[in-house]
Amino acid sequence: MLAVLVVFAIALGITAVSIPGIRRLAISLGFVDAPAQRKMHSTPIPLMGGVAIYLGAILALALFSNRIAQSITGVLLALSIVALIGLIDDRVGLPAWAKLGGQFISFLVLLYYGIHVQLPIPPLANYAITFLWLAGISNAINFLDNMDGLSAGVSAVAASFMLLLAVFNEQILVSALAAALLGSCLGFLRYNFKPAQIFMGDAGSLFLGYSLAILGLQLRFPDNVTAVTWMVPVLILGLPIFDTTLVTFSRLRRGVSPNTPGKDHTSHRLVARGFSQREAVLFLYLIGGVFGLIALFVTQANALEAYLIAGTVTAVALYAIWRLDKRS
After folding, report:
1. By CB atoms within 10 Å of each CB, which of 124, 236, 284, 310 scores lowest?
2. Bridge partners (DSSP) listed for residue 32
């Protein structure tokens, strides 16, 4: 437990201390997000906050790497590829296929190190599910990065629940990665909560999403069965999954490509219904926490209880999507 606290403190400290310098570097290099009709900010904001998040988490893990499994090498390499692809996208703007290609290369790295879904099904099906999960969660966190403090805060909430579960189950690698993510997110939030002084950009959001997806793959629950525990990471990451589903459904219904930027995310819809931006973000933190608490209960549930909970959550989520999209 002490080692986990050390990783958390190192990640938080490196991220928080490095941001002022990275912010100046971003301005000098032209990594700046200009205002636009679809965006919430009215003045140019430096990008490259994701570099600080990456440095905090990766350096904390690297300093701790001699005490955890060799698979950490694969995790660090895969996450570095994703962060680099995001950084390039922040500077020059990459097509969707190029970003997906980078995520696929990272997936191959993880596959080489034996990190993938291990369901009792054919290996190719396990590999396909693994890539869909990694790319889906990575892009869901990227989608969620649409309001000051939102993506980093929701990621911190998810990482805290994964940290708790990993510590309880004595998973050293998962505990270390979750602690590093939590620390780097909190260090970044000091400068990103409204009014934001810096944005994480795709380098940060893709890195956080891929990291959380890896954590979801690595969580283990020896006291329960796979038929139940596969729901746990899905529930912990229920909010970004919900937001992506809402946006995809809404845009397809309106004949718009899901990749088209717009102000139709959950946060935007809450603001349109009278929430301030801060209230919307804090409310979504709360919803993320509710998903996490439900996931904690599912870890101790039997199959019938778990599937009743999953069915109820799905029904509530579908109703919420219908209500939120009703007036768009």
Report:
1. 124
2. 46
Could you give the CA distance from residue 213 to residue 131 in angstroms, rounded to a whole number? 10
Question: For residues 284 and 145, what is the distance between their CA atoms, to the nearest angstrom?
Answer: 12
Neighbours of 298 (CB within 10 A): 24
Residue-wise pLDDT tens digits, 136-151: 999 999 999 999 999 9
Q: Please give the share of the chain, as a percent, with pLDDT higher than 70.
A: 95
- Nearest to 101, CA basis, from 112, 88, 114, 91: 88
- The predicted-structure confidence for 4-26, as pLDDT tens digits, reads as follows 899 999 999 999 999 999 999 99
Nearest to 205 by CA among 244, 260, 249, 150: 150
Say if residue 124 is exposed, middle or buried (CB neighbours under 10 Å; 0-12, 13-18, 19+). Answer: exposed
Length of the chain: 328
Q: Which residues contact 159 (CB under 8 A, 6 or more apart)?
A: 178, 181, 182, 185, 212, 215
Read off the tokens for 323. Answer: 């209500």
Find how far residue 58's CA is from the centre of its chain. Answer: 16
Instruction: Indicate whether 33 pLDDT > 80.
Output: no
